[in-house]
Write a structure and sequence with these properties.
With about 200 residues, this protein is an all-alpha fold. The chain has helices at about 10-15, 20-35, 45-55, 55-70, 75-120, 125-145, 170-195. The protein folds into two domains: about 10-40, no CATH class; about 45-50 and about 60-195, no CATH class.
Length: about 200
C-alpha cells in the first residue's frame, strides 16, 4: 500500500503553525495601519523609528535562539543589556562613540563568559546562574550610574529623535546578515543532529 502524495495546498495549510509568528505580525501591522493610518503610523519616519526601537530586541532574540536550541535559558539578557548601555553611555564621554561601543560590547562579552564558565565548568544550572546574574547586572548598573540617567556626549541621537551617527535607513539591512547567519547555523545544527542521532 502506497501513501498518497499530499497536495501543495493541503501541505501549506497543515503547516500553518510554522508561520504563526509571521501571520501574527502581518495581522497586527494591518490592524494598526487601518486604525492609525491617518495618524502617521505609515509615515516612513515612524516605521524607521519602530525598526530602531526594536533593534536591541532583534539582536537579543538572535542570540537567545542559540541558547534555547541547546536546551538552556538566559534570564539575564535584559539586565545585561541595561548594564552594557550604561557602560556605553559613560564610556562615550571618555573615549568617544567608538570607544563607548567597544566598552559596551566588552561588558556583554565579559558577563557572557562568566555565565558560560559557571554553567559549563562549574556545573551550575543555567536557570540559577542567569537568575543570579540578572540581579548582579541590575545592581551594578544602578551602582555605577547612581540610579540616574547617563547622558551620552556627543549624543548619537538628536533632540528630534533622529540618529544620524547610527545606521539610519540601513538599520534593517544591517540586521539581515545576522538573521541569515543564524538561520544557516541553526539549519546546519539541525541537519547534523538528525543525521548523527536519528535512531
Amino acid at each position: 500500500m502506497t501513501d498518497k502524495p499530499a497536495t501543495p495546498g493541503k501541505t501549506a495549510f497543515a503547516n500553518w503553525r510554522d508561520y504563526i509568528i509571521y501571520i501574527g505580525f502581518v495581522a497586527i501591522f494591518l490592524i494598526f495601519a487601518v486604525t492609525l493610518g491617518d495618524r502617521g503610523f505609515l509615515d516612513p519616519n515612524n516605521l524607521l523609528n519602530i525598526i530602531r526601537q526594536t533593534a536591541i530586541i532583534a539582536v537579543v532574540s538572535v542570540t537567545m535562539t542559540f541558547v534555547l536550541s541547546t536546551g538552556e535559558i538566559d534570564l539575564s539578557v535584559g539586565a545585561v543589556a541595561g548594564l552594557a548601555s550604561v557602560v556605553t553611555a559613560m564610556a562615550i564621554d571618555q573615549f568617544g562613540i567608538a570607544g563607548g561601543i567597544l566598552c559596551g560590547l566588552g561588558t556583554g562579552v565579559l558577563v557572557g563568559a562568566v555565565n558560560g564558565w559557571l554553567i559549563t565548568a562549574v556545573g551550575i544550572p543555567s536557570f540559577l546562574t542567569t537568575l543570579a546574574m540578572m540581579g548582579i547586572a541590575r545592581g551594578a548598573a544602578m551602582w555605577v550610574s547612581g540610579t540616574a540617567a547617563i547622558p551620552a556626549s556627543p549624543s548619537p541621537v538628536t533632540p528630534e529623535g533622529e540618529a544620524p551617527l547610527l545606521l539610519g535607513p540601513g538599520d534593517a539591512m544591517a540586521m539581515e546578515p545576522g538573521f541569515s547567519g543564524e538561520w544557516e547555523v541553526l539549519e546546519t545544527m539541525r541537519k547534523h543532529y538528525v543525521t548523527r542521532y536519528r535512531p
